[in-house]
């Protein structure tokens, strides 16, 4: 049996976190420059490392929303970039969670062309998407620009045939 090497995913350095809440509120990151809506689907947002002084205040509560107007525009462009978009942990070729892998396998079994977006590459996208969709977990499947569901909903829709109908309808529109 031949072994193949797999490129390990990159991680976000711990110095990038500026603040987070004590009660599991989203972490916020500081951008090196303001994010723009013209980000490519697979681009990483440039992040500025936190100053040593800011690191002392990691536990301060933040009531601000992770979903800025610029991030909302970016997410809308991502969601509408293809007929089927999957926001997931990892990539279609290297899923980093069982739920993401399940949805990838379902889409592959239906021969659905889809765009995969690795939410582990950018914490701002990850937290903003939770607010954008009003759905707290990943993966998140979007069909024809509309939130379809997470793993459980996608699996149930696949088993009932509803997913295939939704995908076929989107591909024909």
**Separation of the first and last Cα atoms:** 45 Å
Q: State the low-pLDDT regions, or none.
A: 1-62
Let me know the CATH homologous superfamily of the domain at 69-172: Glutaredoxin
**What's the CATH first level of the domain at 69-172?**
Alpha Beta
H and E order: EEHHEHEHEEHH
Q: Let me know the average pLDDT.
A: 75
Number of helices: 6
The major β-sheet equals: 4 strands, mixed
What strand order characterises the main sheet?
Answer: 4-3-5-6
Helical fraction equals 25-40%
CATH topology of the domain at 69-172: Glutaredoxin
Oligomer: single chain
Radius of gyration: 17 Å
Structural class comes to alpha+beta
CATH architecture of the domain at 69-172: 3-Layer(aba) Sandwich
Principal-axes geometry comes out as globular
The fraction of residues in strands falls at 5-15%
Q: Tell me the number of strands.
A: 6
Describe the structure.
- By secondary structure, the protein is an alpha+beta fold.
- It has a domain at 69-172: Glutaredoxin (3-Layer(aba) Sandwich).
- The protein has six helices and six strands, in the order ββααβαβαββαα.
- The protein has helices at 52-55, 69-79, 98-109, 123-133, 151-160, 162-172, and strands spanning 17-19, 28-29, 84-88, 115-118, 140-143, 146-149.
- It has a four-stranded mixed sheet with strand order 4-3-5-6. It has a two-stranded antiparallel sheet with strand order 1-2.
- A hairpin with an 8-residue loop joins strand 1 and strand 2.
- The chain is globular, with a radius of gyration of 17 Å.
- The model is unreliable at 1-62 (pLDDT under 50).
- One of its GO terms (molecular function) is 2 iron, 2 sulfur cluster binding.
- InterPro entries: Glutaredoxin, GRX_PICOT-like, Monothiol_GRX-rel, Thioredoxin-like_sf.
- It comes from Brassica napus (Rape).
- Belongs to the glutaredoxin family. CGFS subfamily.
């Amino acid at each position: 049996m031949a072994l193949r090497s797999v490129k390990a995913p990159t991680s976000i350095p711990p110095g990038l976190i500026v603040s987070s809440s004590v009660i599991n509120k989203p972490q916020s990151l500081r951008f090196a420059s303001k994010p723009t809506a013209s980000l490519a689907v697979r681009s990483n947002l440039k992040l500025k490392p936190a100053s040593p002084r800011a690191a002392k205040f990691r536990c301060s509560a933040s009531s601000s929303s992770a979903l800025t107007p610029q991030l909302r525009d970016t997410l809308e462009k991502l969601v509408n970039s293809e007929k089927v978009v999957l926001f997931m942990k990892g990539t279609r070729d290297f899923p980093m969670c069982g739920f993401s892998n399940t949805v990838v396998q379902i889409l592959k079994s239906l021969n659905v062309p889809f765009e995969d977006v690795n939410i582990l590459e950018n914490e701002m996208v990850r937290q903003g998407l939770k607010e954008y969709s009003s759905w707290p977990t990943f993966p998140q499947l979007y069909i024809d620009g509309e939130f379809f569901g997470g793993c459980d909903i996608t699996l149930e829709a696949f088993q009932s045939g509803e997913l295939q109908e939704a995908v076929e309808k989107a591909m024909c529109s």
